[in-house]
Amino acid sequence: DLAQGNVNIIKSVIPQAVKYAPDAIYVTVSNPVDIITYTILKMTGMPENHVFGSGTLLDSARLREIIGTHVDVNPQNVHAYVLGEHGDSSMIPWSLTSIGGIPMNVYADSLRNKRADYTPLDHAQVINDVHKAGGNVIRLKGATFYAIAVSATTICRNILHDSNTVMSLSGMLHGEYGISDVCVSVPFIVNRNGLANSVTPPLTDAEMKEFSASADMLKGTIAKLDI
Question: Domains (ranges, CATH) in the chain?
Answer without folding.
Answer: 57-223 (3.90.110.10)
